[in-house]
Amino acid sequence: MGYEIDYYNIKIDFEKNEFLVLDQKLLPFEERYIKLETVQDVYDVIKNMNVRGAPLIGIVALIGLYLGSYTDMEFLKKARPTAINIFNYFNELKVYLEKRADHHKDYKELVRSFIIDILKSEYTKNLKISQNGFEILKKIVNKERINFLTHCNTGSLATIGLGTALGIIKYTSSEVLRSGGKVFVWVDETRPYLQGSRLTAWELHKEGIEFKIITDNSAAYVMSKGLVDVVCVGADRIAKNGDTANKIGTLNLAILCKYYGIPFIVAAPNSSIDTNLSDLRDFEVEERQKDEVIKIGDIPITRQDYEVFNPSFDITPCELIDYIVLDSGVYSKPYNF
Questions:
Q1: How far apart are the C-alpha atoms of 3 and 22, rounded to whole Å?
Q2: Which of 75, 225, 238, 260 is the most buried (most CB within 10 A)?
Q3: Where do the structural domains in the chain lie, given as residue ranges?
Q4: Paired residues of 6 in beta bridges
Q5: Which CATH number does 129-331 carry?
Q6: Alpha-carbon span 108 to 154, nearest angstrom
Q7: C-alpha span between 335 and 337 (Å, rounded)
């Protein structure tokens, strides 16, 4: 079946009112799609992390507004409150609709046009991020073999196009191969949801890029052995001063990079910047259910009655970030977005 919009993480046919998202919780073992028919369906796939990655979450949330109504904005914002893209896309949609209030188009047609524009824009942004990242890497890593370490999943599964941090890695791999070079990737497993070992490894395998999965607590060891040239991660929200909220474990890597003198790069679209926040010192981090920690899948790994602290994100202070790569360019300290 042909779709008007067809990426492997999302398939859309507005004419037939069909919206499918890849269930990322089943990867890498099974590729199955979930059909979105209601606003509740959209909320559930975001909340339950069948869909994840800040840019993709924002796009799927827009589909929720298409399936429902303008009044569903506040409900959908609660699904994953850290991902600023939902808020930014919704604000942009408000302006978009206000400018066209006198046009003879119905609500759904306007939202449809807006979603298509955002999809095209995100694809272009991903390519620019990847190209910008490659340009800075040429300056800071002068080697034929570049050893990356990355955390969580920031590739095509999480975005539209190449990805952000993983997009940089993919683009760099294709460029250095032309001159006889090579890219290798250390993939943090990313507990507790294992986005690294399940999703990033899956993408790298598809791309034919060499990698090895490591436990999150192995990062310091591989760094100490001189096996990491650069760490490249994504971001769910960036404050004006460059403070970054990202998947839990990102702060660990930034601190380790500071100690070992390894460049630490954050990659994201400009839509991940929250210009309403000067910093993230007091930012409230989302906490998730204990089952993610005490179980792997449906298999218990410790007792159900044990207490758990399960923050989904941590905050990396701007002073630990060497470069922030956006679609608009490459930025270094001091940041002032």
A1: 14
A2: 238
A3: 5-119, 129-331
A4: 11
A5: 3.40.50.10470
A6: 30
A7: 6
Of the CA atoms within 13 Å of residue 166, those in its CB half-sphere come to: 31
Reported as a single tens digit per residue, the pLDDT across 87-102 is 889 999 999 888 876 6
Residue among 86, 174, 84 at smallest CA distance from 127: 174
Could you identify the residue written with the tokens 């955002």?
Answer: 118
Active site residues: 236
Could you report the per-residue pLDDT of 281-331, keeping only the tens digit for each?
Answer: 999 998 999 999 999 888 999 999 999 999 999 999 999 999 999 999 999
Question: pLDDT tens digit string along 107-148?
Answer: 888 999 999 999 999 999 999 999 999 999 999 998 889 999
Residue length of the chain: 337
Does the structure show a pLDDT above 90 at 206?
yes
What are the residues facing 150 on neighbouring strands?
187
CB 251 within 8 A of CB 308: no
Q: Evaluate whether 238 touches 82 at the Cβ level (below 8 Å).
A: no
How far is 21 from 64, CA to CA, in rounded Å? 12
Q: What's the pLDDT band for 205 if we cut at 50, 70, 90?
A: very high
